[in-house]
Amino acid sequence: MLAPYRSILTLPGAKAFAFAGLLSRLPISMFNISVILMVQIQYSSYAIAGRVAAVGVLVWALQTVPTARLVDRIGQRAAMIPLTITFVAGASLAIWTAMTRGPEWLLWLAVAIASIQGPLGSLTRARWSHLLERDQDIHTAFALEGSLDEVLFVAGPAAATILATTVWPPLGVVVCLTGLVIGMTILLAQRATEPAPRRGTGGTSLGLRLPGAVIGVAFVSFGIGAMFGAFDISVVAFADESGHKTLSGLIIGIISAGSLVGGLLYGARHWRSPLWKRTLIGAAALAIGFGALALAPNVLLLSLMGFVAGATIAPTMTNADAVVQRVVRRDQITEGMAWLRIGLGVGVALGAWVAGGLIESVGSRAGLAASAAGGLLSLVLALAFIGVVRRDTERGRPTDEAALEAEQEELEQLEETVEQPPIPPHL
């Protein structure tokens, strides 16, 4: 099973940037839950915690495409150094505000600043696309990245919960901050595997010319994000109501362990079924799995059922990444994947906001029901867009030089008539 992973990890620099990318992505798994716990402990309110987390995730989603374009245009090193400094400043302000019980609006501001992190989840995926040529190898690399994400989601929430509830409320945020700084320092030192900046190749950004498949999987990611956003805060509340609040991070970790196993098994096999069909099946499995979790009667069964449901997460996200990789040019890969993170982030923000209010007024069961509704929404959206996903992925992206030149000429003609705003107007 490990042979495909061993093959790609033997490439020069692959192990180094994979490890550094894993460490630098700590905020993806820990920052949201750490903020929820810190604010809930300090202010004794799930509603405030849900609102603050929602604002942060929403800002994170909105910044993803502009910062991804910046990374593609000027390079990872030049773009990520100032973005890392921005995160450190915002996270530090959030800690100070929460510990002094400052006004909620200042928490919003601090978390919003900290959420301008750049496209953390796309940096190493862009490096894999830069190094690898075959779709099968890229499928394996993306599955590896998805599984590494789940390593973070296994350890991150559990560690954040233990640190916040037993040691010091903002300690999870401090660990996020430290991991990002160390990981980014190591990653940005790996110059040999960094994709060339677009300004040096004459390439163009996607702008508003998004392939239909990218739009489709971004909407599917929105539903998945709503499911995740509602689920995280609902698990904390469910465990709290059961008298086992310190187990909430462990429960999320068990679910992520299921995703890790599912992702590794999925990535080790080279599938013959078409990508569009796997995308639809993944969304259906995710909706069924998290729908069942809303019916779990206690913490133990929630954990056991969660491991099985979690096995659908990494394969589904791997399919979404693969759709983008299949339909955009290599020098647009970071920007293309950023649209998935926008969908995911806006969904997480909405899910956390809605679930926080429901939990405060009704209870944790209502929050789990909101999570199940998000999973169902992702399946409905997948069904709505599966036709265009099938069309675009079967067409693929141009690979021969003549096709690339024709595509470039078409893009240049479009750029003469389409003014590119810094942020798409519909965001």
Q: Could you explain the architecture of this structure?
A:
This protein is an all-alpha fold and 427 residues long. The chain has one domain (16-196, 205-397): Growth Hormone, Chain: A. It is built from 17 helices and no strands. It has helices at 3-9, 14-24, 26-43, 46-74, 76-99, 104-114, 123-131, 135-167, 171-188, 212-241, 248-268, 275-293, 299-310, 313-327, 333-361, 364-395, 401-417. Keywords: Membrane, Transmembrane, Transmembrane helix. Residues 402-418 have a biased composition (Acidic residues).
Descriptive tags:
mainly alpha, globular, disordered C terminus, transmembrane transporter activity, MFS
Distance between the amino and carboxyl termini: 42 Å
Overall shape: it is globular
User: Structural class of the secondary structure composition?
Assistant: mainly alpha
CATH class: Mainly Alpha
Helix content: over 70%
The major β-sheet equals: none
Q: What is the tally of beta strands?
A: 0
Residue share in β-strands = under 5%
Order of helices and strands: HHHHHHHHHHHHHHHHH
CATH architecture: Up-down Bundle
Radius of gyration from CA coordinates: 20 Å
CATH topology group:
Growth Hormone, Chain: A
In total, how many domains does the architecture comprise?
Answer: 1
- Give the averaged pLDDT, no decimals: 82
Low-confidence segments = 398-427
User: What is the count of DSSP helices, taking H or I runs of 4+ residues?
Assistant: 17
Query: CATH homologous superfamily?
Result: MFS general substrate transporter like domains
